[in-house]
Each structure stands twice: as structure tokens, then as C-alpha cells.
Amino acid sequence: MKIMNLVWFRNDLRTKDNHSLKKACDADSPVMGVYFFDPRFYESRDFNLDVDIDLPFTRTGKYRAQFIIESVADLRRQLQEHNIPLLVFHDKPAKVLPDLVKEHDIKNIFLQKEWTKDEMDQEKDLGVELDKLDDKPKGHRTYDQFLYHPYDIPFESFQKIPKVFTEFRKKCEKQAQVRELVSIEAYKQDKLSVHKTEIPSLEDLGLESFEIDKRSAFPWEGGSKSAWNRLQHYFWETKQLQDYKKTRNGLIGTDYSSKFSAWLAQGCISAREIYHEVKKYEKEIKKNQDTYWLVFELIWRDFFKYVSLKHKEKIFNLGGILQKEYDWNSSHRELEKWINGETHEDFVNANMKEIAATGFMSNRGRQNVASYWSMHRKQDWRLGAAYFEHILIDYDVHSNYGNWMYNSGVGNDPRNRTFNIQSQADRYDSDHEYRDLWLEN
Ligand SMILES: Cc1cc2nc3c(=O)[nH]c(=O)nc-3n(C[C@H](O)[C@H](O)[C@H](O)COP(=O)(O)OP(=O)(O)OC[C@H]3O[C@@H](n4cnc5c(N)ncnc54)[C@H](O)[C@@H]3O)c2cc1C
Questions:
Q1: What is the mean pLDDT of the chain?
Q2: Model pTM?
Q3: What is the Å distance from ligand 1's center to 399 Cα?
Q4: How is the cofactor bound (predicted)?
Q5: How far apart are CA 127 and CA 309, in angstroms?
Q6: For the chain, which terminal residue's Cβ has fewer other Cβ atoms within 10 angstroms, N or C?
Q7: Arch. (CATH architecture) of 317-439
Q8: Cβ 261 under 6 angstroms from ligand 1
Q9: What architecture does CATH give domain 146-178+224-311?
Q10: What topology does CATH give the domain 4-144?
Q11: Is the C-beta atom of 257 inside 6 A of ligand 1?
Q12: Where are the domains of the chain?
């Protein structure tokens, strides 16, 4: 039997500009892929947060689960074009991979480098099992989720990354380059015979099926194909990129912002791919503050990844990275009222109803409901972050916990960022259209 290279896909569900896949294809052996629907991300209500109340929801809700199912199906189709099979399991990696390694004589495992607890736990468990094998495969980990690669940023170490975003951004913009894209376009191997595996359904994952709400600001499928269709529409067909900064604080509809977040979170498209398309657009169509601002936001995304690289587990602590002590409460009843949109703030309620019905909420809405929860009600911010982890279609550990800390006074900005919800509603929903849309029934 021929030695095999395995790509373990996690949050990098694409074939274009995927460094792990590229490295595997460049090595001199056939390639196969694997993806795990790890039950601990679906069934468990334990968010590893050490909070005072039992949380009434699981780690991954139906919207993101469906999006992942679609993304994995799309990845499988893309890989087929190169005759690379993708095996899919609804099980823990540590339970499946050792046998797979033996069965296919796998010598190399290529994967995206991660550092947060869940992903490290997966790897640790697996390491223990692989250590039992006589011939342990070699792991090849690559940072592939950034705009600015960790080896290119102008800071001596992660510990030297500035506290303040502006300083981080300015230095990166001046001294770092976004890398060029990699491709496996020309790669095609002989067909391999592997046993067939099924992608689980929502039901298999213990979740109910649902219809997309007609008011949804995010009505799309998971997968690279859909991500690129969206980019094509937003950049090239409707040219809305050139108005992005002016519209990004909107609340209603599909087009007030790019809506790239869910695809970015699963790695269906890379931040570098979006960056290079913006540059192309600026060259061919128009360059202005708005086109720049999309890149500016992608740098925010990077920044939160660097915050978690620097502070590791502290991003899950009550005191956050500032290690600030406030008097936090943990009320089950308050949580229920907030989730159900039954607070005394109609702007908060409308946003909470939107996220419950669709898995998506605008950035403006997220800032307001987070501020309401942690700063107005003085509730443990991690309970709110955990609900977002459950419900968001675009949940990303770094962006979620980073933004929650930031909005709760324990993050990278020590200023008090409490929002005046009423004046926010007056400013961003002056005609009540948004609240009417979500509160009418
Ligand atoms: C409390 C709270 C929780 C959040 N949780 C998440 C999360 O789990 N996953 C997530 O992707 N974003 C999160 N965000 C950031 C932001 O709200 C979403 O990225 C954005 O609303 C997604 O819509 P979009 O793709 O149309 O964004 P656009 O406005 O079109 O921005 C383009 C891209 O830039 C990045 N971006 C924009 N704003 C931010 C930001 N504040 N922080 C980090 N990246 C940003 C995203 O990748 C986004 O897709 C959170 C914000 C708050 C206030």
C-alpha cells in the first residue's frame, strides 16, 4: 500500500489558498482529507467557562451546524475535482484517526495551527492515542487563518503585540505584506479507493431542521462556492464595496455589509483572498475610503486572533485580559429575558429576536445587546458570549470572546464603552423600521 498524506480540515474548509492542502499535494504521496463533527461541539452544554448557572443551550446551534454541513459537502465536491477523497466522521478525532493512520499507512498529517482550548484538547487527546502506535505520523501545522501571517508582523513576539488596535493596525499596514495566494489547480492524483462515509444531517447531530426566515440578513448556504458568489455579487455585480463604509452600520437586508463572516469563520474563503480581490477592485474599478474600510475590518479580525494568541486562556476569564474585577451577576431569569427579547429596551429585543430567528445580527446590534447585557444589567459577560457561541452562524472564538471583552470593559480597550441604547436606536433606527420588522409578531 502507498504511504498517504492526510489533511485534517477544521476551520479551513476550502481548496483554494489552503496551505495545509497545498503542502500535502506538494509532498510526494497521495492525499486524502478528513473532517470530524466532534460530538463535544454539538451535544455538550459545557462551555469550559466556569460560570455560576447551567446554560440552557448547547455549544453549536442549528444555524451554524447547517452551515457547516453545507460547507463540508461543498469541500468534498471541490476535492473530488482533484480526486482527493474526504472522509467525514461524526465522532471524536482521537477515536477514529489512529485506525485510519494504520489502515492507510499515513505518515504525515497536515492541519491548520490552532491555539484555543477546544482545538488543543482535540489534539492532546489524539496525541495520546497516536503515541500508542509504533509508527506515529508527523504533524505539520500551519497558521492559515490570518490576513497578516504571524511570521510577517512587525513585533518581536506575540507578547509585544500592542494593547490598542490602532497601533497594531498602523504598524502592520506600514511594515507587513499580505502574502500571495497558493493554488492546487494543476494537481490531480489517481483515484483512491477509500470507504464511503456520510455527512451527518442536523437530526444526526441532535438538532431540528428549520426554514430560512424570509427577513434574514444572511440567507445563504455554507461553502466556498457560495462565498465566491457572494463576493461576486457584492464587489463586481452591484459594486457595493465602494459604499461599504457608508452602509456598514445598517440593520436590515442582505447588502448593508459584506456578510463574509460565516464563510471566513469556517475558512470557506480566506482573508487573503478577499484582500487581493479588494486590491483588484481598487485597480480596475475604484479605490476610496469604503474599499479600504473592508480591509480595515479584516485587520480587526486579525487583531482579535492576535489578542487570543497573546493572552491564551485569559480571554475566557471573567476578568478578561485586563483582569478587571467588577460586581458581576448571573441571573437565569435575566438570561431568559435577554435571549427571548423580553427586556425593557425594544431595540435590544428586536436584535435578540433577529438572532434567534436567523443566527445573524448586525455589528451595530451585537454591540448594543452586549453592552445592555454586561454594562447595563451587570451580568457575567461570558453568559452572553456563550449564547452567541451557540446561536451565531458566524461564531469565531477569537472575534466572539474578543468583542465581548471589548464591549464589557475587560478587553483591549480600558475605556468605558457603555452604549446609550435609546440614543443608538434613535440614530440607527430612527423610523422604527427595524424594530417593527422583528417585533411585529
Ligand atoms: C459582541 C460581539 C460578538 C461578535 N462575534 C463575532 C463572531 O463570533 N464572529 C465574527 O466573525 N464576528 C463577530 N463579531 C464581529 C462583527 O459583528 C461581525 O464580524 C460582523 O457583523 C459580520 O458581518 P459582515 O461579515 O457583514 O461584516 P463586515 O462589516 O462586512 O466586515 C467584513 C469582515 O470584517 C470582519 N469584522 C468586521 N467587524 C469585526 C469586528 N468587530 N471584530 C472582528 N472582525 C470583524 C469580519 O470577518 C467581517 O466578515 C462580533 C461583534 C460583537 C460586537
A1: 96
A2: 0.98
A3: 7
A4: Binds 1 FAD per subunit.
A5: 22
A6: C
A7: Orthogonal Bundle (1.10)
A8: yes
A9: Alpha Horseshoe (1.25)
A10: Rossmann fold (3.40.50)
A11: yes
A12: 4-144, 146-178+224-311, 317-439
- Hey, what's the cell of 92? 471524536
- Average pLDDT, 10 consecutive residues per value, the chain (441 residues): 87 98 93 97 88 92 98 98 97 97 95 96 95 94 98 97 96 98 96 94 97 98 98 98 98 98 98 98 98 98 98 95 90 97 98 98 98 97 98 98 95 84 97 96 64
Q: Is 305 in the pocket of ligand 1 (CB under 6 A)?
A: no
* The residue to which cell 444531517 is assigned: 201
User: Can you tell me which residue has the cell 502506535?
Assistant: 133
Q: Work out the burial of residue 20: count CB atoms within 10 Å of its CB; fewer than 13 is exposed, 13-18 middle, 19 or more buried.
A: buried
Contact, 234 vs 290, CB < 8 A?
no
Reference 304, options 375, 404, 380; nearest CA is 404
Strand 4-9, strand 106-112: pairing: parallel
For 273, the enclosing helix (H) or strand (E) is: helix 271-284
CB 264 within 8 A of CB 301: yes
Rounded to whole angstroms, the Cα distance separating 85 from 241 reads: 36
- Are the CB atoms for 258 and 277 separated by under 8 Å? no
Neighbours of 273 (CB within 10 A): 19
